[in-house]
# Entry
Amino acid sequence: MINRVVQHCLALLLVVLAAQAQAADKPNIVILATGGTIAGSADSQTQAGYTSGQVGVDILINAVPQIKEIANISGEQVANVGSQDMSDAIWLKLAERVNALAAKSDVDGIVITHGTDTLEETSYFLNLVVNSSKPVVMTAAMRPSTALSADGPLNIYNAVAVAADKDAANRGVLVVANDDIHGARSFTKTSTTDVQTFKSIEYGLVGVSLYGQNRWFRGPFHKHTNASEFSVDGVDKLPRVDVIYITADVSPDLITAAVSNGAKGIVTAGVGNGNMTGPALEAVKAAIKDGVVVVRASRVTSGAVGRNVEVNDDETGSVAAAELHPARARVLLKLALLKTTDPAKIQQYFYTY
# Structure
Protein backbone atom coordinates (compact mmCIF):
# COMPACT_ATOMS: atom_id res chain seq x y z
CA MET A 1 0.00 0.00 0.00
CA ILE A 2 2.80 2.39 0.95
CA ASN A 3 4.60 1.60 -2.30
CA ARG A 4 1.51 2.51 -4.28
CA VAL A 5 1.25 5.84 -2.48
CA VAL A 6 4.91 6.55 -3.12
CA GLN A 7 4.55 5.64 -6.78
CA HIS A 8 1.48 7.87 -7.08
CA CYS A 9 3.32 10.79 -5.47
CA LEU A 10 6.31 10.29 -7.73
CA ALA A 11 4.04 10.24 -10.77
CA LEU A 12 2.41 13.49 -9.68
CA LEU A 13 5.83 15.03 -9.05
CA LEU A 14 6.96 14.07 -12.55
CA VAL A 15 3.83 15.64 -14.03
CA VAL A 16 4.46 18.86 -12.09
CA LEU A 17 8.13 18.94 -13.07
CA ALA A 18 7.24 18.33 -16.72
CA ALA A 19 4.69 21.15 -16.62
CA GLN A 20 7.23 23.47 -15.01
CA ALA A 21 9.84 22.58 -17.63
CA GLN A 22 7.35 23.19 -20.40
CA ALA A 23 6.40 26.58 -18.92
CA ALA A 24 10.06 27.50 -18.57
CA ASP A 25 10.54 26.92 -22.31
CA LYS A 26 7.82 29.42 -23.19
CA PRO A 27 8.29 33.21 -23.25
CA ASN A 28 6.48 35.27 -20.63
CA ILE A 29 4.02 37.71 -22.17
CA VAL A 30 1.99 40.32 -20.28
CA ILE A 31 -1.26 41.56 -21.82
CA LEU A 32 -2.24 45.10 -20.85
CA ALA A 33 -5.86 45.95 -21.62
CA THR A 34 -7.12 49.48 -22.21
CA GLY A 35 -10.63 48.83 -23.56
CA GLY A 36 -11.82 49.59 -27.08
CA THR A 37 -14.00 47.67 -29.50
CA ILE A 38 -11.96 44.52 -28.90
CA ALA A 39 -13.43 44.61 -25.38
CA GLY A 40 -16.83 45.84 -26.58
CA SER A 41 -20.23 44.26 -26.07
CA ALA A 42 -23.58 44.41 -27.86
CA ASP A 43 -27.04 42.98 -27.20
CA SER A 44 -26.97 41.04 -30.46
CA GLN A 45 -24.31 39.25 -32.50
CA THR A 46 -25.40 41.10 -35.64
CA GLN A 47 -26.10 44.68 -34.60
CA ALA A 48 -23.82 47.55 -35.61
CA GLY A 49 -24.13 49.45 -32.35
CA TYR A 50 -22.15 48.40 -29.28
CA THR A 51 -20.47 49.76 -26.14
CA SER A 52 -16.67 49.81 -26.01
CA GLY A 53 -14.63 48.71 -23.03
CA GLN A 54 -17.12 46.34 -21.40
CA VAL A 55 -15.01 43.17 -21.19
CA GLY A 56 -12.10 42.76 -18.79
CA VAL A 57 -8.63 41.43 -19.55
CA ASP A 58 -9.27 38.03 -17.95
CA ILE A 59 -12.25 37.43 -20.26
CA LEU A 60 -10.18 38.46 -23.28
CA ILE A 61 -7.45 36.01 -22.31
CA ASN A 62 -9.84 33.15 -21.54
CA ALA A 63 -11.55 33.67 -24.91
CA VAL A 64 -8.30 32.66 -26.63
CA PRO A 65 -7.03 29.63 -24.65
CA GLN A 66 -4.68 28.75 -27.54
CA ILE A 67 -2.33 31.60 -26.60
CA LYS A 68 -1.26 29.60 -23.55
CA GLU A 69 0.25 27.05 -25.92
CA ILE A 70 2.77 29.61 -27.21
CA ALA A 71 3.49 31.70 -24.11
CA ASN A 72 3.00 32.02 -20.37
CA ILE A 73 0.30 34.69 -20.13
CA SER A 74 -0.61 37.20 -17.44
CA GLY A 75 -2.91 40.18 -17.77
CA GLU A 76 -3.52 43.61 -16.28
CA GLN A 77 -6.30 46.14 -16.77
CA VAL A 78 -4.71 49.57 -17.27
CA ALA A 79 -7.90 51.29 -18.45
CA ASN A 80 -11.25 50.30 -19.97
CA VAL A 81 -12.39 53.04 -22.31
CA GLY A 82 -13.35 53.45 -25.92
CA SER A 83 -10.24 54.82 -27.58
CA GLN A 84 -12.11 58.00 -28.49
CA ASP A 85 -11.64 58.73 -24.77
CA MET A 86 -7.92 57.90 -24.72
CA SER A 87 -6.14 60.70 -22.86
CA ASP A 88 -2.71 62.03 -21.97
CA ALA A 89 -3.24 60.72 -18.45
CA ILE A 90 -3.82 57.16 -19.69
CA TRP A 91 -0.85 57.47 -22.06
CA LEU A 92 1.43 58.40 -19.19
CA LYS A 93 0.07 55.59 -17.00
CA LEU A 94 0.46 53.09 -19.83
CA ALA A 95 4.01 54.21 -20.65
CA GLU A 96 5.03 53.92 -17.01
CA ARG A 97 3.66 50.40 -16.77
CA VAL A 98 5.16 49.24 -20.07
CA ASN A 99 8.59 50.55 -19.08
CA ALA A 100 8.35 48.90 -15.67
CA LEU A 101 7.38 45.54 -17.15
CA ALA A 102 9.95 45.71 -19.96
CA ALA A 103 12.68 46.26 -17.36
CA LYS A 104 11.87 42.93 -15.67
CA SER A 105 14.03 39.95 -16.57
CA ASP A 106 11.05 37.58 -16.41
CA VAL A 107 9.02 39.52 -19.01
CA ASP A 108 9.84 38.76 -22.65
CA GLY A 109 7.19 40.82 -24.41
CA ILE A 110 4.10 42.96 -23.92
CA VAL A 111 0.77 42.99 -25.77
CA ILE A 112 -1.61 45.94 -25.45
CA THR A 113 -5.27 45.74 -26.44
CA HIS A 114 -6.71 49.07 -27.58
CA GLY A 115 -9.47 50.67 -29.61
CA THR A 116 -8.90 51.35 -33.30
CA ASP A 117 -9.90 55.03 -33.31
CA THR A 118 -6.74 56.43 -31.70
CA LEU A 119 -4.46 53.42 -32.05
CA GLU A 120 -2.22 55.43 -34.39
CA GLU A 121 -1.56 58.01 -31.67
CA THR A 122 -1.07 55.67 -28.70
CA SER A 123 1.25 53.32 -30.59
CA TYR A 124 3.37 56.21 -31.87
CA PHE A 125 3.51 57.78 -28.40
CA LEU A 126 4.79 54.50 -26.94
CA ASN A 127 7.18 54.12 -29.87
CA LEU A 128 8.84 57.34 -28.70
CA VAL A 129 8.89 56.80 -24.91
CA VAL A 130 9.29 53.05 -24.28
CA ASN A 131 12.90 52.48 -23.27
CA SER A 132 13.33 48.84 -24.29
CA SER A 133 14.17 46.69 -27.29
CA LYS A 134 11.72 43.99 -26.15
CA PRO A 135 8.64 43.46 -28.33
CA VAL A 136 5.73 45.76 -27.52
CA VAL A 137 2.76 44.80 -29.68
CA MET A 138 -0.58 46.55 -29.88
CA THR A 139 -3.74 45.01 -31.24
CA ALA A 140 -7.35 45.98 -31.71
CA ALA A 141 -10.57 44.89 -33.40
CA MET A 142 -13.22 46.37 -35.64
CA ARG A 143 -15.97 44.14 -34.27
CA PRO A 144 -16.95 43.83 -30.60
CA SER A 145 -16.26 40.66 -28.66
CA THR A 146 -19.92 39.61 -28.90
CA ALA A 147 -20.14 39.99 -32.69
CA LEU A 148 -20.68 37.20 -35.17
CA SER A 149 -17.19 36.43 -36.53
CA ALA A 150 -15.45 38.79 -34.10
CA ASP A 151 -11.92 39.64 -35.23
CA GLY A 152 -10.50 40.25 -31.74
CA PRO A 153 -9.59 36.69 -30.67
CA LEU A 154 -7.36 35.92 -33.68
CA ASN A 155 -5.81 39.38 -33.47
CA ILE A 156 -4.90 38.69 -29.83
CA TYR A 157 -3.51 35.27 -30.76
CA ASN A 158 -1.33 36.73 -33.51
CA ALA A 159 -0.25 39.65 -31.31
CA VAL A 160 0.94 37.23 -28.62
CA ALA A 161 2.76 35.18 -31.26
CA VAL A 162 4.53 38.32 -32.47
CA ALA A 163 5.41 39.44 -28.93
CA ALA A 164 6.80 35.96 -28.24
CA ASP A 165 8.95 36.05 -31.39
CA LYS A 166 12.59 36.99 -30.77
CA ASP A 167 12.71 38.45 -34.28
CA ALA A 168 10.19 41.09 -33.18
CA ALA A 169 12.78 42.73 -30.92
CA ASN A 170 14.37 46.03 -31.96
CA ARG A 171 11.53 46.85 -34.38
CA GLY A 172 9.86 49.47 -32.21
CA VAL A 173 6.22 49.28 -31.18
CA LEU A 174 4.29 47.02 -33.57
CA VAL A 175 0.60 46.85 -34.41
CA VAL A 176 -0.96 43.50 -35.32
CA ALA A 177 -4.40 43.32 -36.92
CA ASN A 178 -6.07 41.16 -39.54
CA ASP A 179 -2.88 39.10 -40.12
CA ASP A 180 -0.76 42.22 -40.80
CA ILE A 181 2.16 43.58 -38.77
CA HIS A 182 2.51 47.36 -38.98
CA GLY A 183 5.10 49.76 -37.66
CA ALA A 184 3.78 52.31 -35.16
CA ARG A 185 4.87 55.25 -37.32
CA SER A 186 3.55 54.15 -40.68
CA PHE A 187 -0.01 52.80 -40.55
CA THR A 188 -3.32 54.60 -40.68
CA LYS A 189 -6.99 53.74 -40.25
CA THR A 190 -8.64 53.98 -43.66
CA SER A 191 -12.22 52.79 -43.12
CA THR A 192 -14.85 53.41 -40.49
CA THR A 193 -16.13 49.82 -40.56
CA ASP A 194 -13.95 47.57 -42.75
CA VAL A 195 -12.07 44.86 -40.84
CA GLN A 196 -9.07 45.51 -43.09
CA THR A 197 -9.03 49.14 -42.02
CA PHE A 198 -5.30 49.55 -41.30
CA LYS A 199 -2.93 50.29 -44.17
CA SER A 200 0.77 51.12 -44.17
CA ILE A 201 0.60 53.32 -47.25
CA GLU A 202 4.02 54.96 -47.38
CA TYR A 203 6.40 52.31 -46.07
CA GLY A 204 4.53 49.04 -46.38
CA LEU A 205 4.06 46.26 -43.85
CA VAL A 206 6.69 45.24 -41.32
CA GLY A 207 5.51 41.66 -41.72
CA VAL A 208 2.55 39.30 -41.54
CA SER A 209 1.31 36.83 -38.94
CA LEU A 210 -0.80 33.92 -40.15
CA TYR A 211 -2.21 31.92 -37.23
CA GLY A 212 0.89 32.79 -35.23
CA GLN A 213 3.40 32.06 -38.00
CA ASN A 214 5.34 35.28 -38.61
CA ARG A 215 7.15 36.50 -41.70
CA TRP A 216 9.23 39.66 -41.49
CA PHE A 217 9.74 42.13 -44.34
CA ARG A 218 11.56 45.12 -42.88
CA GLY A 219 12.59 47.07 -39.81
CA PRO A 220 11.77 50.69 -38.93
CA PHE A 221 13.46 53.55 -40.77
CA HIS A 222 13.36 56.09 -37.93
CA LYS A 223 14.56 56.21 -34.34
CA HIS A 224 12.31 54.56 -31.77
CA THR A 225 12.01 53.08 -28.25
CA ASN A 226 15.43 52.50 -26.65
CA ALA A 227 17.12 54.72 -29.26
CA SER A 228 14.70 57.59 -28.59
CA GLU A 229 15.79 60.62 -26.59
CA PHE A 230 12.25 61.23 -25.33
CA SER A 231 11.15 60.22 -21.85
CA VAL A 232 8.08 60.79 -19.72
CA ASP A 233 9.68 59.64 -16.48
CA GLY A 234 8.40 61.97 -13.77
CA VAL A 235 6.08 63.76 -16.22
CA ASP A 236 2.52 64.18 -14.94
CA LYS A 237 1.17 66.43 -17.70
CA LEU A 238 1.86 66.91 -21.41
CA PRO A 239 1.74 70.31 -23.13
CA ARG A 240 -1.48 71.26 -24.92
CA VAL A 241 -1.22 70.92 -28.70
CA ASP A 242 -4.23 71.59 -30.92
CA VAL A 243 -4.89 70.42 -34.48
CA ILE A 244 -6.55 72.94 -36.80
CA TYR A 245 -8.16 71.48 -39.90
CA ILE A 246 -7.56 73.71 -42.92
CA THR A 247 -10.32 74.09 -45.52
CA ALA A 248 -11.16 76.51 -48.29
CA ASP A 249 -11.82 79.89 -46.64
CA VAL A 250 -10.97 78.52 -43.20
CA SER A 251 -11.63 80.90 -40.30
CA PRO A 252 -8.24 82.12 -39.07
CA ASP A 253 -9.74 82.87 -35.65
CA LEU A 254 -9.64 79.11 -34.98
CA ILE A 255 -5.86 79.48 -34.76
CA THR A 256 -6.17 82.60 -32.63
CA ALA A 257 -8.62 80.84 -30.29
CA ALA A 258 -6.21 77.93 -29.78
CA VAL A 259 -3.51 80.36 -28.71
CA SER A 260 -5.90 82.26 -26.43
CA ASN A 261 -6.96 79.02 -24.75
CA GLY A 262 -3.44 77.97 -23.82
CA ALA A 263 -2.11 75.89 -26.71
CA LYS A 264 1.68 75.62 -26.56
CA GLY A 265 1.75 74.06 -30.00
CA ILE A 266 -0.47 73.94 -33.07
CA VAL A 267 -0.55 71.41 -35.89
CA THR A 268 -2.28 72.54 -39.07
CA ALA A 269 -3.92 69.79 -41.11
CA GLY A 270 -3.25 71.69 -44.30
CA VAL A 271 -4.39 71.24 -47.87
CA GLY A 272 -2.01 69.64 -50.36
CA ASN A 273 1.59 70.06 -49.26
CA GLY A 274 0.60 71.49 -45.88
CA ASN A 275 -0.66 74.70 -47.42
CA MET A 276 -3.31 77.10 -46.08
CA THR A 277 -5.12 80.32 -46.93
CA GLY A 278 -3.36 83.67 -46.70
CA PRO A 279 -5.35 84.81 -43.63
CA ALA A 280 -4.67 81.47 -41.89
CA LEU A 281 -0.95 81.84 -42.60
CA GLU A 282 -1.00 85.33 -41.06
CA ALA A 283 -2.67 83.87 -37.96
CA VAL A 284 0.06 81.22 -37.83
CA LYS A 285 2.76 83.90 -38.00
CA ALA A 286 1.08 85.76 -35.12
CA ALA A 287 0.90 82.58 -33.07
CA ILE A 288 4.61 81.93 -33.62
CA LYS A 289 5.40 85.48 -32.50
CA ASP A 290 3.48 84.68 -29.30
CA GLY A 291 5.82 81.72 -28.66
CA VAL A 292 3.58 78.94 -29.98
CA VAL A 293 5.31 76.26 -32.09
CA VAL A 294 3.41 75.57 -35.31
CA VAL A 295 3.86 72.38 -37.34
CA ARG A 296 2.47 72.17 -40.87
CA ALA A 297 1.03 68.73 -41.65
CA SER A 298 -1.42 67.71 -44.37
CA ARG A 299 -4.93 66.34 -44.42
CA VAL A 300 -3.92 64.25 -47.48
CA THR A 301 -3.59 60.52 -46.77
CA SER A 302 -0.09 60.03 -48.20
CA GLY A 303 3.04 61.91 -49.15
CA ALA A 304 5.32 64.21 -47.17
CA VAL A 305 5.02 67.88 -46.30
CA GLY A 306 8.22 69.49 -47.55
CA ARG A 307 9.97 72.38 -45.92
CA ASN A 308 10.04 75.71 -47.81
CA VAL A 309 7.90 74.46 -50.69
CA GLU A 310 4.68 76.49 -50.87
CA VAL A 311 5.21 78.04 -47.44
CA ASN A 312 8.57 79.62 -46.57
CA ASP A 313 9.14 77.91 -43.23
CA ASP A 314 12.47 79.64 -42.70
CA GLU A 315 10.76 83.01 -42.94
CA THR A 316 7.61 82.01 -41.06
CA GLY A 317 9.32 80.06 -38.29
CA SER A 318 7.14 76.99 -38.83
CA VAL A 319 8.02 73.29 -38.88
CA ALA A 320 7.24 70.86 -41.72
CA ALA A 321 5.75 67.55 -40.57
CA ALA A 322 7.41 65.39 -43.25
CA GLU A 323 5.41 62.09 -43.50
CA LEU A 324 3.65 62.40 -40.15
CA HIS A 325 -0.08 62.97 -40.44
CA PRO A 326 -1.66 65.58 -38.12
CA ALA A 327 -2.51 63.20 -35.24
CA ARG A 328 1.00 61.77 -35.06
CA ALA A 329 2.53 65.21 -35.56
CA ARG A 330 0.59 66.32 -32.49
CA VAL A 331 2.07 63.44 -30.45
CA LEU A 332 5.64 64.24 -31.47
CA LEU A 333 5.16 67.96 -30.86
CA LYS A 334 3.82 67.30 -27.35
CA LEU A 335 6.97 65.36 -26.49
CA ALA A 336 9.26 67.81 -28.27
CA LEU A 337 7.84 70.68 -26.23
CA LEU A 338 8.98 68.91 -23.05
CA LYS A 339 12.53 69.49 -24.29
CA THR A 340 12.57 72.67 -26.39
CA THR A 341 10.59 75.37 -28.20
CA ASP A 342 13.28 75.90 -30.82
CA PRO A 343 11.63 75.26 -34.23
CA ALA A 344 14.96 74.28 -35.81
CA LYS A 345 15.52 71.58 -33.20
CA ILE A 346 11.91 70.42 -33.48
CA GLN A 347 12.27 70.22 -37.25
CA GLN A 348 15.13 67.78 -36.75
CA TYR A 349 12.90 65.69 -34.49
CA PHE A 350 10.39 65.40 -37.33
CA TYR A 351 13.09 64.15 -39.68
CA THR A 352 14.53 61.75 -37.08
CA TYR A 353 11.42 60.26 -35.47
User: Anything to note?
Assistant: The domain at 241-352 is CATH 3.40.50.40 (Rossmann fold).
